[in-house]
Every structure is written in C-alpha cells, then in structure tokens.
Amino acid sequence: MSALRLDHIECADALTYLRTLPDESVNCCISSPPYFGLRSYLPEGHESKAQEVGTEDTPAAYVARLVAVFEEVRRVLRPDGNCYVNLGDSYSGSGRGPTGHNGIGSQETRQGFHSPQRTEVDDLPPKSLIGVPWRFAFAMQDAGWLLREDIIWHKPAPMPESVRDRCTRAHEYIFHFVKQPRYWYDAAAVSEPTSEVTFARALRGVGTDHKNIDGAPGQTPHSMAQPRNHGDGYSTNPLRNRRSVWTVNTAGYAGAHFATFPEKLVEPMVLAGCPEGGVTLDPFMGAGTV
What we know:
Elements: E1 5-9, H1 14-18, E2 26-31, H2 59-76, E3 77-87, H3 105-110, H4 132-142, E4 146-154, E5 171-178, E6 192-193, H5 196-202, E7 239-240, E8 245-247, H6 263-273, E9 279-282, E10 286-289
Parallel strand pairs: 2-3, 2-9, 4-8
Antiparallel strand pairs: 1-10, 3-5, 4-5, 6-7, 9-10
Helix pairs in contact: 2-4
C-alpha cells in the first residue's frame, strides 16, 4: 500500500459537501462522527453552533441526522465499497453536573472545549447508558445498509472516569457497512499470526468416543473432529483471519483536534477496504487517495 495522501479538507457542512461528489466515486468511507452530547467544538455565539453535529436535543434526532449524511455516502460509494463508522456511547445525565453527564465532564473542560448541558433523554433515567451506537446501526439497517460486523476497539489505556458503581469503559464500536453482499475485501492484507496454541491443538489425537465426532449439538460434523492419532495433525496456515477485537492505544495529536483517529486503528480498514489507487472518504473531514 502506498502512503495515504490527504488530497484536501473541505470546510463545509458534511451533507452539503457530499452532494457535490459524483455517484459511485468512492471506494471506502472511514469516519468517526462527533459523538452525541459529549462535545461542542464551537464557542458560544458561533454562527454554526446550532447546526453542530452531536448537539441535537435527542438521540433520535442525532441518529436521523447521521443516517441522512450516510445516505449521501451510500450514493457516492461504489457498489463494492466499504463503510466503517466508529461511534462511542454516552449516558443520560441529571443536568446537575458540570456537563449534565456522569463522570465525563472535567477532562473535557480542561481540554478546552465546551460540553453541552444534557438532561434526561428519551425518558431514560439519569446514569442510564443511551446505546447510541446500536441505535445508529439499526437505523442504518432500516435505511438499507448491510451491517457486516461490529468491531470492538479495545483501549488498553482508556480515559479515567470518576465512577465507583460500574466499570471504566475501555472500548468503542466500529461498524462495518456495505451496499451489497459481494464487495471488495482484502482479508490477506489484514491477516494475523496464528497462535502457537492452534498449532498444538492441530496435533492432538481424537478418539472414536470424542463428544464432537458427529458434530456438537446443532453443528455440522467437520474434519478436525474425525478420529486420528496424536501427531497426525492438519497443516496450519501461519496466518489467520483477523479477529473482531482490535487492541489499539489512543494517540496524541499536537493540532487543534481533540479526538483524532489513531493511525493503527485506521490502517486495517484502509488495507482491507480500499484497493490500491482507490479513494477513501471521511464525510466529516475530507477525501484521500491510497
């Protein structure tokens, strides 16, 4: 893969910008829209603040706005294209804290942007996880997208949270959408080293009375469960298909953006989802060529 070149950044409303692009002109969309109710990058009084993505009054309004943007993405995406969307979740708040949320305000305030005040949403009680990512994923299905998988972005060093009645959140979702059942996907480009345990397991003997000889209940019998002597293993590929949990550390950025993608997180999406010379798009940022 050649180096990713950023052709341009378009300073415009995402929907307005997308409408200027020709049909089926993009190979892969990789995006992380502003999350619901967590941040406002614009100062009070800014002329565009009322239209800022993520500051909608309800999750339903937020999801509807994102789906409208990705309807235009679907138009400009090639029939064999891929669309990856990263979304984090948020909580219904009481409105009494510094941001109207529970345990997410102080760090954001120190970073220099305003978090919108938020009270109960959709009749959820305070401290209830809203489930924004899955609301979005289901709405995208309703709009006609194929949801291929949910990828878990595991963060080894997540942002600390001052909570004592639940776990600290250390993951976010990446949803993989496509337009049709057959699409471009380079599995070999993102394959992983096969675990040493897999090689050892391939050499194990299987007796005639093994519980899975005829297949586990509800499963079709397969060759690895047929009787064999110890050591009569099957050849094992040194590479395996990539798993759906990606452990990637967050990365710092010296520029003005406070929530950039780590390059290691984007890399497998580009390698698997965009052919050499193809065009990638982030509707909330710009377009580039691989």
